[in-house]
Amino acid sequence: MKPKMILKLAVDIGMTAALLLLMAYELIGQAAHEWIGIGMSALFIIHHILNGSWIRNILKGRYHPVRMMQAGLVFLILCTMVGLMISGTILSRHALSFLPIKGGRSFARNLHMVSAYWGVC
Predict the structure, then answer these.
(1) How far apart are the C-alpha atoms of 115 and 121, rounded to whole Å?
(2) Residue 63 and residue 119: Cα distance in Å, rounded?
(3) Contact criterion met (CB below 8 Å) for 80 and 119
(4) For residue 84, what pLDDT is reported?
(5) Is the pLDDT of residue 91 over 90?
(6) Contact by Cβ (8 Å): 21, 36
(7) Which pTM does this prediction carry?
(8) How far apart are CA 93 and CA 95, in angstroms?
(9) Is 59 exposed, middle or buried (0-12, 13-18, 19+ CB in 10 A)?
(10) How many CB atoms lie within 10 A of CB 84?
(11) Cα separation of 22 and 84, whole Å?
(12) What phi-psi label fits residue 62: left (phi over 0), alpha (psi between -120 and 50 degrees) or beta?
């Protein structure tokens, strides 16, 4: 197997493990949830960098129903992940407490919950 494919596989396995840990919020606690969430965000960004060819080719070729559905689902997952990253940054009390973010916690909490539940769906 090529080194890039091994890296892609490792990133995907890491994201899967992080997702499972993040869903166990009551078991791991708030501080660990924040740090694992930051790790998940970093892995998400790396995942998109490694799969840049898919993104570059999104507008090329013919769109049959399966490809349209796949692209739509990828867009929805992207929206949920961006919502989780933004709201998680605003809600952070431990890992990102040094950021000068004031207010917006109620909106961020709602966005975080809605994004998390839609992400599970």
Answers:
(1) 10
(2) 25
(3) yes
(4) 97
(5) yes
(6) yes
(7) 0.89
(8) 6
(9) exposed
(10) 23
(11) 12
(12) beta
Q: How confident is the model at residue 65 (pLDDT cuts 50, 70, 90)?
A: very high
Residue 25 has pLDDT above 90, yes or no: yes
Mean pLDDT for 50-79 is 93
**Cα distances (angstroms) measured from residue 81 to each of 16, 22, 41, 51, 121:** 14, 13, 8, 16, 13
Rounded mean pLDDT, 85-96:
94
Joined tokens for residue 92: 């952070």
CA gap 96, 90 in Å, rounded: 9
Token duo for residue 21? 């840990």
The pLDDT of residue 102 is above 90: no
